[in-house]
Amino acid sequence: MAETHSLHDLQQPTVSSKVFVQRDYGSGTISKFQTKFPSELESRIDKQQFEETIQTLNNLYAEAEKLGGKSYLEGCLACLTAYTIFLCMETHYEKVLKKIARYIKDQNEKIYAPRGLLLTDPIERGLRVVEITIFEERSIGSGR
Amino acid sequence: MMKNCEYQQIDPRALSVSPLSAQSHAEKTVQRCRRKWEVFPGKNRFFCDGRIILASQSGVLPLTLGLIVVTCGLFFAFDCPFLVKHLTVFIPVIGGTLFVFVVFSLLRTSFTDPGILPRATPDEAADIEKQIDTSGSSTYRPPPRTKEILINQQVVKLKYCFTCKMFRPPRTSHCSLCDNCVERFDHHCPWVGNCVGKRNYRFFYSFIISLSFLTSFIFGCVITHITLRSQEGKSLVQSIQESPASVVELVICFFSIWSILGLSGFHTYLIASNLTTNEDIKGSWSSKRCAEESGNPYSYNSIITNCCATLCGPMPPSLIDRRGFLPLDEATPAVSASDIELPPFTAKSDAHMCTQSTKGVLERMVHSYDVHGLCPPGIPKTTPLDLEVSASSELSLSAGCLPQDACQPVAAPCPPFSRSNKRRDSLHSINPAFRLAYPSPSLSRTTLILGDAPDNGFIPLP
């Protein structure tokens, strides 16, 4: 309960700015984000760490959108059952999206939140951008 | 039509975060739950509480359905008995299967989100403006309309959409009838009452192919029927007089076959070369190179791969999250019907889970400390609330459909799929790291406040 008390006392951290990592269309319409390191994050996080996060996201999206035997099979099966199969089963894409959500949550907890950053899942932005919210640095005090 | 086309400058001051006032606490109890479809800025109409999406004008869809149903009805009633007696019982079986397939594909095409791109949030739009307004001059000018990028060594121009406030991804086009940017935009089809885009192109194609088979089948059967009748010693005129419905069917099928078969052939060509109707009409890739395939940067240069990619590729999710709740409702974790899995209409249950997981932990901390009065600035949108019941009744929707304005109140009983609620509760208790590292960032509040500022139809997507 001491935490409650201190939270009310503290000013809530405000959003200092937001950085948007845009899509990279160099390979066509597949979901892929630019790995260029935004200058606003220079003081907050390692370039390599950031690039690794984005690259992993890109790989996950590529996995979701991969054209291969499995996705064709799913497509054909869906067509034959007049797409009613999706009433019982999740599409491959949806499964990977869940994986991506877990990954982002994990990254936020381990890497970004301690540095005062928050990654927003691109699906909430229509797969247009990866939104990174930068919070102002505040001394939290002994809020434990 | 493009009434939102005129560019409006985004006021940077409106984007600044203001501290939460006590006023929001008072407002919290007055607000009811709102789903995102209710504040959707495009001109679409929604039925069954956001499960079904249609374009604003579905004028010809009832006609399409009516023609199909009437023709098939006449066929089963008047031609089938004769043909079953004289030929085989498989005729109505095949006819019935084709009919079911056609209607299914048609409804799927009409009711599926074609690949609508949600509009840019105010932050994003301001960021884009900042990036292109590099001159730093005080006189404000609208952003340039195009941006050039390289796709597979081919220069492609991305246009800026003034309505959606973003640079359109490649192959995306803004449909003025629906007032949305649609990914891999093919065309707006009045016959199905919806745009045809990335997510429903395969349904559209299966609709026209199966309709070609159906019309050809009925045409053939009717001809056979009349021929067999006249072979029994009667004249042609007499046969026709005995079965006048067959003439009606013949006329309908005859005129349909030309257009439907032509359309099927055209779309088969488009699929084989991985083009959209939009690109083909504009001649985007035709005159650039001598070999037509290498002109198109999206083509896989193999007919089979192109076909498989378009028709059997992975089904992308709907990006607009129609049934997700606006951020106010994250204060009441018990109710979130958006977590229901509705794959036929691809409701964004998983995306809503994403919302919950990335910010839910931070926000639940806030909520647990009693500050759960998130004021939703949800800009009410009147267009989706125009319920044209006539369209819905003709489409014979199930009796369980609710009218749009009867949104369930927050206290409504949870829908049967409660497993996702359990999932969410488990999220609630984990992530101690967040609690310690960062107290309430009030992220959702920030987003909500931002949503208030522009007056041109932004929805405060969390």
Mean pLDDT of chain A, nearest integer?
82
- Helical coverage of chain A, percent range: 40-55%
Topology, number of strands of chain A: 3
- Name the poorly predicted regions of chain A: 140-144
Largest sheet of chain A: 3 strands, antiparallel
Tally of individual helices of chain B: 15
> What is the overall shape of chain B?
elongated
Helix and strand pattern of chain A: HEHHHEE
Biggest sheet features of chain B: 3 strands, antiparallel
Beta-strand fraction estimate of chain B? 5-15%
| Low-confidence runs of chain B | 16-29, 289-293, 329-352, 368-462
- Report the strand count of chain B: 10
**Gap from first CA to last CA of chain A:** 9 Å
Domain Golgin subfamily A member 7/ERF4 (chain A): 19-131
Organism (chain A): Eleginops maclovinus
Protein name (chain A): Golgin subfamily A member 7
Keywords (chain A): Golgi apparatus, Lipoprotein, Membrane, Palmitate
Description:
Chain A: InterPro entries: Golgin_A_7/ERF4, Ras_palmitoyltransferase. Chain A: It is found in: Golgi apparatus membrane. Chain A: This is Golgin subfamily A member 7. The complex is a heterodimer of chains A (144) and B (462). Chain A is of the alpha+beta class and 144 residues long. Chain A contains 4 helices and 3 strands; from the N terminus they run H-E-H-H-H-E-E. In chain A, strands 1-3-2 form a 3-stranded antiparallel beta sheet. In chain A, a hairpin with an 8-residue loop joins strand 2 and strand 3. In chain A, helix 2 packs antiparallel against helix 4. The relative contact order of chain A is 0.21. Chain B has 462 residues and is mainly alpha-helical. Chain B has 15 helices and 10 strands. Chain B has a 3-stranded antiparallel beta sheet with strand order 3-8-7, with no helix packed on it. A 3-stranded antiparallel beta sheet of chain B has the order 4-5-6. In chain B, helix 2 packs antiparallel against helix 3, helix 3 packs antiparallel against helix 5 and helix 5 packs across helix 6. The radius of gyration of chain B is 27 Å and the shape is elongated. Chain B starts with 22 loop residues before the first helix and ends in a 10-residue tail after the last helix. At the A-B interface, helix 1, strand 1, helix 3, helix 4 and strand 2 of A face helix 3, helix 4, strand 4, helix 5 and helix 10 of B.
